[in-house]
Each structure stands twice: as structure tokens, then as C-alpha cells.
Task: inverse folding
């Protein structure tokens, strides 16, 4: 692994942590919510029923792909966005659609010894860019941990958890890629940004 790639991966990981911290800080600094009369104030960003142009946040539950896995698991991919650091972050949700408890299969971690050593993850995920004939693997930090959701719990029937995976970005002119995760069906997704 080159020093340049390692530095970029580290920079991307730091940027992700800083962005998450800022988002939590902003969420925690919200107003009290109560007006002078003790009733909750209307939110400035609240959706109005007659607004023909909903905000970006309201459309955030858009599904790019829904992939079925074994044991009644479903992966719903909700976003795939380019970051300024040259990465693509894929966000989604894994849901247990069965009537029995289920675990994310160990195969989803992939078969690389370095990734497996850090526990269960989605480290086996890849993006395939057919146009440039390249496959992109989940990034790792300097200690070999995959930049993806790790240590996922056993899911009760109907339960879901949010997940993310970070990949190197394909060329800017490649916006359509195939997402693959072991034991799940493949699906085509659009990269934004």
C-alpha cells in the first residue's frame, strides 16, 4: 500500500469523524423548542403540506437499490455520494425481514485476513465500474480496520440497523456502478456528486 493512498485514507477517516462530530454538536445545540406560551415552536424547516418543492432532507429516504440476502436480510442502499477527498460513501440500512433473529453472515466481511482480524464487518463489499473495468474495495485505516460498519449485532425479527461503507471514488465520468456484498444480490447504483 503506498504512502499516498494511506495518507488519503487517513485524511478521509479524519474528515468523516470531524463531520460526524459537527453534526452531533449542531443537533445538540438546537433551541429549547418552547415558545413563550409553553407550546412547542414550529420548526423553520418543517414541511408545509402545500410546498411543491420538498427539501433535500425530506427525500433522504430514497432507495437506490434494495438487495436481498440470505436468512431474510435486506440491504437498502439510500445514498452513494462522492466526497471531496476522492472517496465514495455508501449509506443504507440492513433489515431482518424474517420472523426469526438473524446475524449478518460472516462472509460479508470478505476473506482478507487483515479485515477479518477486526471482527464482523461489511468489508467484503465492492463497487464495480464496468466502464473502466475496475473493482473498488472497501477502504481501510492505517491499522487495517475497514472503513465500514463493524461489530453488527444480531437482528431481531423486523429490526434494522444503519450501515455505511467507504470506497475509493471511480473516475468523475463514472456515475453508475454495481454494488456487491457477499451473500446478497448485486445491484446497480448511481453515485451523486
Result:
Amino acid at each position: 500500500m503506498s504512502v499516498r493512498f494511506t495518507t488519503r485514507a487517513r485524511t478521509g477517516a479524519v474528515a468523516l469523524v470531524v463531520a460526524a462530530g459537527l453534526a452531533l454538536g449542531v443537533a445538540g445545540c438546537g433551541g429549547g423548542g418552547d415558545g413563550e406560551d409553553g407550546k412547542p415552536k414550529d420548526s423553520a424547516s418543517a414541511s408545509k403540506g402545500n410546498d411543491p418543492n420538498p427539501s433535500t432532507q425530506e427525500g433522504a429516504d430514497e432507495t437506490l437499490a434494495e438487495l436481498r440476502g440470505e436468512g431474510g436480510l435486506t440491504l437498502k442502499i439510500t445514498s452513494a455520494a462522492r466526497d471531496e477527498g476522492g472517496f465514495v460513501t455508501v449509506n443504507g440500512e440492513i433489515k431482518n425481514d424474517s420472523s426469526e433473529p438473524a446475524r449478518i453472515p460472516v462472509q460479508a466481511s470478505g476473506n482478507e485476513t487483515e479485515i477479518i482480524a477486526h471482527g464482523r464487518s461489511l468489508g467484503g463489499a465492492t463497487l464495480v465500474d464496468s466502464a473502466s473495468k475496475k473493482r473498488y474495495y472497501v477502504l481501510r485505516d492505517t491499522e487495517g480496520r475497514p472503513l465500514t460498519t463493524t461489530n453488527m449485532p444480531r437482528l431481531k425479527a423486523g429490526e434494522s440497523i444503519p450501515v455505511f461503507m467507504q470506497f475509493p471514488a471511480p473516475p468523475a465520468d463514472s456515475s453508475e456502478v454495481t454494488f456487491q456484498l457477499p451473500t446478497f444480490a448485486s445491484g446497480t447504483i448511481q453515485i451523486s456528486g
